[in-house]
Amino acid sequence: MAITRYAGDRFYGLESEKDSLLSRVIDGAHYTASDSLISYIKVNGSWLSTAATGGSGETFFTGDLYVSIASGKTFGKYINGDTIPASGKTPQQVIEMALRENLSVTTSLTSSTTIAFNQTAISNILDFSYQINTLGASISGALLEYRRGNVGSWATLASGTGTPGSHTHSLTDSNYNTSGFYYKYTVTDTAGSTGSSSLAITPAAYSAPTAALSVLGVSLVSPESNSKREKGHINSTLEGTVTRNSANVNLTSYQWQYQLDGGGSYISIGSPVSIGPGTTSISSTGHNDSGLKTANSLSYRVKIIDDYQTYLSSQVYSSTSTVDFLNLIFYGPASSAPTTSSDVRNLTSRIFTDGSNPFNLNTSTSEKIFSAAMPSSKSITEVLDLDALNANITANYASSTVSVANYTGDTSSYKVYTMTNAIPYSSNHRHQITRTT
Q1: What is the pLDDT of residues 110-129, one digit of tens each?
Q2: What's the whole-model pTM score?
């Protein structure tokens, strides 16, 4: 057995003496013998061994490799500063290891299921699939889990390798439960990679019932409407429809209510009326409370009770419908000057006190007397004859006071302004009357 030392990074020696030889190598040695030899080559500070007769065969790294390359470059999946666990591996194994990375499993978890409010029969259909992305790996396990409200521990619905498919999660839920159903699908492959998908199915929120209201005035006279009437004209017919907006919640009752002059509490009209279970028409109800005849406005609404409101010990109210009550201004031509309430109310035209300002009195060609009557809080400030070159005829309208009754017969003081011509106009004249606001 002879040893020849030389400068370099290679030597040959007996496999049985490898460990002791390596511990004595400085720059390298050449070892010859008739037995099987191992060839050692120093690469990047690590020794690679070739174990074969005559110094040929597979090469193995005897230590790990430290990656030292420029920023932005990679050796497969390794970057500058990484340590490659190369010890005991062949160059081919190291290269394969660098080019093969464990990739996360691609998973999908979907559902077409929707849950209505207060739906207690639950059948959530879950569709799931996966794709293994690591080269050479296969599925080793899959797990479908769920929990309520996304809190607490996960409960297993299904497990095992299986194949992509679906699962129906069925149960009987408690009433009015709006906590979401949270699902998780996790797949693991034989290389240890995993993938997970999550899904939430949340029951719909409660949708309160609504009501469409009609507050209809009785015996309306122009310019009155259902929502604006003469002071005291409170006689109304109440109608409408209550609509159920949560299919699994039954309607139980409704009750009309009103509020006086836009403030204070609402007052119930009559007793609750049973309805339901679904959308229901409100029967016509008359409301003509003489105690409200001085009202400036009445606002109506409907209190609606359903099973859920009973459960909550609360109630739902419809939107409001408001009627405003105002005094009238009476005006027009007359055969004689108005001196009584009836004379004033028989004038041919009328507007509300919040109506057009100025307004036009049409004289016609048959009368020579023209009057305009308004509550004493109002006054005429100007009258122009638009068909006489806008002549200012304010002074021609003399004022008097008359007690005028409203719709319910309650009287109030009115100023009555009257102009008298010697003869009727030969053509209609428009007297433009401006009043205080």
Answers
A1: 999 999 999 999 999 999 99
A2: 0.72
- 93-102: which pairs have CB atoms within 8 A and are 24 or more residues apart? 94/61, 94/65, 100/134, 100/135, 100/136, 101/76, 101/77, 101/134, 102/134, 102/137, 102/191, 102/192, 102/193
Strands lying side by side in the sheet with 236-243: 210-217, 236-243, 280-287
Q: Which domain holds residue 195?
A: 106-201
CA distance 30 to 37: 11
Task: Give the contacts of 84 (CB within 8 A, at least 6 positions apart).
Answer: 64, 65, 66, 67, 75, 78, 94, 97, 98
Last residue of a domain, one of 201, 229, 263: 201
Structure tokens at 75: 């050796």
* pLDDT at 153 > cutoff 90: yes
Residue 55 reports pLDDT greater than 80: no
Identify the CA nearest to 191 among candidates 134, 238, 114: 134
Tokens matching residue 245: 């907006």
For residues 163 and 177, state if they share a domain: yes
Residue 16, exposed/middle/buried by CB under 10 A (0-12, 13-18, 19+)? exposed
CATH of the domain at 181: 2.60.40.730
Give the pLDDT of residue 405. 97
Do 84 and 24 fall into the same domain?
Answer: yes
Residue 135: what pLDDT? 84
Domain check: are 376 and 390 in the same one? Answer: yes
Q: What is the pLDDT of residue 16?
A: 54
Residue 49 CA, distance from chain mean position = 70
For residue 13, pLDDT beyond 80: no
State residue 3's pLDDT score.
Answer: 35
CA–CA separation, 280 vs 268, rounded Å? 20
> Which residues, at least 6 apart from 110, have a Cβ–Cβ distance to it below 8 Å?
126, 127, 128, 199
Q: Which phi and psi (to 5°) does residue 59 adopt? A: -110, 135
Judged against a pLDDT cut of 70, whether residue 289 lies above it is answered with: yes
Residues 395 and 344 in one domain: yes
In total, how many domains does the chain have? Answer: 4
